[in-house]
Amino acid sequence: MKLLLIRFSALGDVAMLAPVLRLYAQEHPDDDLTVLSKPFHAPLFDDIAPNVHFLGRDPKRDYKGIRGLYRLFIELHQMHFDMVIDMHDVLRTKILRKFFRVHGYPVRHIDKHRSLRRRITAPEGKKQLQRLPTSFENYAAVLYGKLFEAQTLSELTREESKGITHSIPCREGRGGSLSIGLAPFAAHQGKIYPVERMEKVIEMLIEKCPECKIILFGGGGKEREQMTAWSEKFSNVVLASEEVKERGLSYDNPLKNELEIMKTLDVMVSMDSGNMHMASLVGTRVVSIWGATHPWAGFLGWGQSEADCVQRHDLKCRPCSIYGNKPCLRGDMECMNISEEEIVERILRS
């Protein structure tokens, strides 16, 4: 069967599709699978399986409006897929799948459990905090259809997590160097640890591990200015772009270069962001920092341990948002009032 899977953005959500697709492709070698996403995301699906292909298209840039989406449909229609699976379920993909359905294609779409998400982000007194199905389970449910069993996927996730080293023994004062990735920013303010406190985390890491190298990932504009300032202030800190040059990496896609660096890290420190999922894909342990959002919403990285999630358990207002894009109801972002010592201890725990 020739399947088309549609998932345009965001980076972290697209990355979460990759391990599920790898498992399915290995179990169904006779199926031909094509992922339709933004061209930038192509490295996430490199070498997954011989029967997995990537098709890069950017609807916001090249296929604007209903007419643009119809042009995209015509291109896809000429590729003669047997089934279309919408892994995104937003307005543009709903329009696309409508075109396919009208032309007789079998179409499935993901269930994001939006009603359950509203319950766990409800105000105090109405909140029902519970562990929601993960994005991996949501992807697998629509991909496998009636054959999907959540328990089986959970077992596979645990099996793959065995390849991730979830501790760094005897790092403090050790002779060798420690390679730490740090992705201090995220798409929304509700997921970002305060910059001045993150600088203190950097200082403490260098104090405890004088020979460590801290590689900074992500950020643009003012965020990149801040990371550049850190790299100039601390000799142990480098930008990922500079590390790419130092290692002589020459992939055309910057995402591919960063994935290659992440493979070699001892640990990645990340917000609830795409970098957490990128590091997870290459089997690197991630210490993740959670503020307005919560790992129970289903977005913890593939194979990662909840013990490596740094978060406040004593706040009844958490989570107040699934994506971290809502203003703090308290107005003080108390959820990000996490001690620097706790973060450093979690990074270096043995």
Layout of strands and helices, then pairs:
Layout: E1 2-6, H1 11-27, E2 32-37, E3 52-56, H2 59-62, H3 65-77, E4 83-86, H4 91-102, E5 107-109, H5 114-120, H6 135-144, H7 150-161, E6 179-183, H8 195-208, E7 213-216, H9 222-233, E8 237-239, H10 240-247, H11 254-262, E9 267-271, H12 274-281, E10 286-289, E11 309-310, H13 340-348
Parallel strand pairs: 1-2, 1-4, 2-3, 4-5, 6-7, 6-9, 7-8, 9-10, 10-11
Helix pairs in contact: 1-6, 1-12, 3-4, 8-13, 10-11
Commentary on this structure:
By secondary structure, this protein is of the alpha/beta class. It has 13 helices and eleven strands. A six-stranded parallel beta sheet has the order 8-7-6-9-10-11, with helices on both faces. The chain has a five-stranded parallel beta sheet with strand order 3-2-1-4-5, sandwiched between helices. Strand 7 (213-216), helix 9 (222-233) and strand 8 (237-239) form a beta-alpha-beta unit. The longest helix is centred in the N-terminal third of the chain and has 17 residues, at 11-27. The model is unreliable at 169-175 (pLDDT under 50).
Question: What brief labels describe this structure?
Answer:
alpha/beta; globular; 13 helices; five-stranded parallel β-sheet; six-stranded parallel β-sheet; 350 residues; 11 strands
